[in-house]
Every structure is written in structure tokens, then in C-alpha cells.
TrEMBL record:
This is Guanine deaminase. Its EC number is 3.5.4.3. Catalyzes the hydrolytic deamination of guanine, producing xanthine and ammonia. It is an enzyme of class 3 (hydrolase). It comes from Pelagibacterium luteolum. Belongs to the metallo-dependent hydrolases superfamily. ATZ/TRZ family. Residues 68-427 form the Amidohydrolase-related domain. Keywords: Hydrolase, Metal-binding, Zinc. CDD domains: GDEase. Binds 1 zinc ion per subunit. GO terms for cellular component: cytosol. Its cofactor is Zn(2+). One of its GO terms (biological process) is guanine catabolic process. SUPFAM superfamilies: Composite domain of metallo-dependent hydrolases, Metallo-dependent hydrolases.
Amino acid sequence: MTAKILRGRVLTFVSEPNGPDDHESYRYIEDGAVVVDQGQIVSVGEYNDGLKLAAPRAEVIDHRPGLILPGFIDTHIHYPQMQVIGSYAKDLLEWLNTYTFVEEQRFADAGHAARIASLFCDELVRHGTTTAAVYCTVHPQSAEAFFTEARKRDMRMIAGKVMMDRNAPEGLRDTPQRGYDESKALLEKWDGLGRLHYAITPRFALTSTHEQLEMTQDLVREFPDAYVQTHVNESLGEIAFAKELYPNLPDYVGIYEHYGLLGPKTLLGHCIHMTDREMAAMYETGSVAVFCPTSNLFIGSGLFDRDAMMAANVRIGVATDVGGGTSYSMLRTLDEGYKVLQLRGQRLSPLESFFMMTLGNARALSLEHKIGALAPGGDADIVVLDAKALPHMALKMEQVDSLGEELFLLQTCGDDRVVVETYVAGEAAKSKRH
Ligand code: GUN
Ligand code: ZN
């Protein structure tokens, strides 16, 4: 591995943008360079400002006029749902029972899991995503397959075996003890290996008994630094069912709160139909609300209330939620997110969107010291975008004269086709075949 200099227009955020014109929130270098070596970012600056001189033997990769950004981060996605995407259903519970719980049973087969895990990583990289928080299935071999693939590619990934012991077909159920034992063994084997992190993953309150959530709490107590990921307040039917199953707890977030599952490493997918009490509980524990716009529109679950979350100071991430979600692209995701917020009368500026898919999501995952920004010492996970990749976008670019407008065009019309290259740990991964 030799050092590389990536030359292009460099953009990285340093803080959360406060409105559409907050130029202090980012650094932009017109003829910039990112020097990468041994999987890390060594320096970032002006190309002609000594960066080339400082690394004279480095290979220069000229991406001009491409835009060089930190790799995209997806804070909620299901790799076993690659063949569920685009399934027709009336609502969440029908979608889960008719398609998802059928498809996920196939991951008992380690060979199938390995094939899909590899195709999944290919797809993330093709779309510019370098880190994701990933649900596997109930089968430990599904998590083995995913971690094996991510390790092979040296990707920074968070994942976990789903725990579920009721309201699902027999082939998808573990038991409280098995869920605990299998999760613990996977965590001990994979967490911290290379760039891998383990997420304790009770699917959601509907598919776990009290006993399972109690044993999940034991696991969280034993491994307080591990992630916890689950779903909450996605659809009204789901919420009514949760109330039936846990009648003595105040609300849906209160279920996870009762079992000690909230905290700064806890990612709660969806968070659409929230009470003030639930938002306060999330704020007090530092838990993260994960906005999944393509999924919420596709399944018809509802419109995320970003302003209410921000007013309550709840941490927010944004995610594809494939296969409830309909695209692997964080650009498509933020485009749909923009539309959800338009329908709610809320504003989401292009600077805020690009912050969210990079540094914002890194912060949501408490990984901002490693990913989400282009800074010396960080992981060399990088995406290069071209807003003129498609003829109609190139035409519109003739009328674009600010960075904000360019970002907005990339978000509104862009997808995998605007991703010129994705670097994983400093290596070009999109153009390389696995
Ligand atoms: N709630 C519980 N499981 C799932 C899932 O796989 N997808 C979505 N969108 N919601 C869920
Ligand atoms: Zn999900």
C-alpha cells in the first residue's frame, strides 16, 4: 500500500449547520487534496499548498472537478432484506408477516447468508456508503456471514444478530437464553476486531417476551459499551399491539426504558408517533432517533417530526432501512427526507442534509473521532461525487452557482450514478470488483 493523494473539491463538516447559510459549519477547498496512507487520512488541505510536496512519492488520483466527501453513513439497514425490497403490503405488520419473516428464514443457510452479505457490501459501496448499522437475522450464522464479509473488506460496520422469541414463525424464534448466549458469543468474537462493532439487537417489543428483554438487559449491563438497536413507534397498528403486550408500561419507549435498553449507544429506528414523555426519556438517556424516510413513505407509516425531536434535544440519525426502505442511496434517502419535512412544513437545508449523512450520522453512532469527517487521523473512508454525471443534471448545473445549490441537486436527482468512487480504508472499492 502506497500513500495516495486524492485531488478534487474537498468538503467536510465541522459542526451542525445552523440554517442554509451557515458557512462556518463546513470547510470547502476548491483545489483540495486528501492524503491517505495505511487506511487513514494523513492530511487535508490545498493541493498546491505543500500537500503534494509533503508526499512526493504518493500516487495522485485526480478527481477534479469531483466533490470529495467523507463516506456516507447509514444508521439503520437490514442486510437480509435485499430480496424483500419493493414488496407490496398494506402496512408494516402485513409487510413483516407476508414477506420479511418468510425471507429471513432463508438465512439459516450459511451459504445463502454469505452470498447476500457480499452482495450487500457491494451495494453499499456502489452507493457511497462506507459504514452502516446493520440488522442480521435471528440465526447466528447470518451475523457470522456479515462480519466475515465486512472484515474481509476492512469496513467499519456495526451489526448484530436479531433476538426474537414470539410473534414470528418458529424458524425465526430463539429463546431468551439462546438469544443471550448467541449474542454474547458473537459480541465476544467480533466486537473490536478490525473496525467491527457489535449491536445488541432485540428486533422490537412485539417479537420479544418480558423474559427476553430482561436477559437483553443483562447483556447490556455486561457490555455497556455495545450498541443497542431496535424499532419503536413506526406504525399505529404496531403501537396498539405493543400496548397490549406491555399494558403496565407507560408507552412504547417506556418498554425499552423499563428494561434498561436506552442510552447513548441506543439506536431507535423510526420514532414517528412520539409523545412528549417518550422524547424526554430519549433525551435524558442520550438515545438516538433514526429517521427512515423512504421506508416510512413506502410502508405508509407516517411523517417523522424532526422539529419536535430537535426542540426536545433528542439526537437524530438518518437511514435507508432497506428493505422497508426503497433505496440504498443516502442521497435518495435525504431527498425523501426533505419531502417528508416539506409535508410537515419543516425546513431541511442542503447543508443540513449533507451534514446528516456524514458527520451527523457519525455523531449519532458516537464515531465522530473515526468517521464522518475528512481530518488527519480519521479513517480513510471517502466518497467522490459528480453532479454532472447525468445529462439532465449537467444541464441544470449550468444554472448552479453555489455549493448549496450543487448539493441540493445531488440530493434531489442523484443516486449511485453520481458516485464516482468510494474509498474504504484508503482503497478504491467501487471500481474494484470483489
Ligand atoms: N419493525 C420490526 N422489524 C422491522 C423491519 O424489519 N423493518 C421495519 N421497517 N420495521 C420493523
Ligand atoms: Zn428496520
